[in-house]
Amino acid sequence: MQFNRTRNFNLDWILIILFLLLVGFGWVNILSASSTGEITSILDTSQPFGKQLIFIGFSIILIVLILSIEAKFYERFASLIYLGSMVSLLGLFIFGKEVNGAISWYAIGGMTIQPSEFAKFATALAVAKYISDLQTNIKDLKDQIKTAIIVLVPALLILLQNDAGSTLVYGAFFFVFYREGIPKIYLVIGFTIMILAVSSLKFLALPTTIVVSILIVLHYIFIRKKNKSIFQPAGLILGVLIITFGVQLFYKNVLKPHQQDRISLWLRLEKDPEVLSRMKKREAYNLYQSEQAISSGEFLG
After folding, report:
1. Number of C-beta neighbours around residue 199 at 10 A
2. 81: three-class secondary structure by DSSP
């Protein structure tokens, strides 16, 4: 490992200032929310604000350290860093601590560490190394599959630990791949699946399938002039059927109750006033309190 002591950092200071402001505001909010009496020390590790301040300090030191290391180091050891992060995710199944139903934390003394946060960085590093290889052509199906595997392995491990929120973050890699030149059809397919998933939950699977199937048939009858094979629309309708009913099965039989409640609140699926009132006091407590605080503050807060 080499440190470049003479490097003239070409840093985006506006971005750095915004980052520090966000971190500072976040810490002040934690301080105001967690302090109930006289504060003896802001470094009190028994309090959330003390732990957070220590994390901030270590993060800044880590940022400076990372910037000081030669870029070749990350290129050379990207695979090992990625492998190490995968091992840390696997270790959670044996040594992990369950927090809010998710086995995604290591408990070390009074501190907890979430390996999935490091896995995001390691995955980005591994993807960057693979894509930058001269022999890699992201437009080739073979390389697309390999790149997808790099992302899907940690995503699936995290999903198996019941941490669906962290798993969703890996969906952002899709936009990285699109930026690097994967075919636009993947973007169309991705958004289509999301629309079908939301529609199947909001309007039920069968009506969604019927409406989309009619649109597909009409498209192939009146718009497409060539290749009017029955197999293409039949395949598309089958795909729609699998997605819509698959989402329903996944929602009802795989997701945990608290995850179902969050989706239900987001899509406004629940119509019973009593159930909604109960959910506002539990799953949606922070959301509705925030909405009330914002609305009561009006334009000037």
Report:
1. 20
2. helix
- Residue by residue, pLDDT tens for the chain (301 residues) are 555 554 555 777 888 899 899 999 988 888 877 766 666 777 776 777 888 888 899 989 988 888 888 888 888 899 999 999 999 999 999 888 887 777 888 888 777 888 988 999 899 999 989 988 878 888 888 998 999 999 999 999 998 888 877 888 898 888 888 888 888 888 888 888 889 998 888 888 888 888 888 888 888 877 765 666 777 888 888 999 999 999 989 888 877 777 787 788 777 777 777 766 776 667 666 667 777 766 766 665 5
Domain boundaries, the chain: 1-69, 71-182, 184-251, 255-296
C-alpha–C-alpha distance, residues 116 and 85, integer Å = 8
| One-letter amino acid for residue 241 of the chain | L
- pTM for this predicted structure: 0.70
Q: What is the DSSP letter of 3?
A: B
- Is residue 174 a contact partner of residue 186, using CB atoms and an 8 Å limit? yes
Tokens linked to 245: 């009913």
- DSSP characters over 75-134: HHHHHHHHHHHHHHHHHHHHH-EEETTEEEEEEETTEEE-HHHHHHHHHHHHHHHHHHST
State the DSSP code for 99.
E
Structure tokens at 119: 């896995």
DSSP string, 55-81: HHHHHHHHHHHHHHB-HHHHHHHHHHH
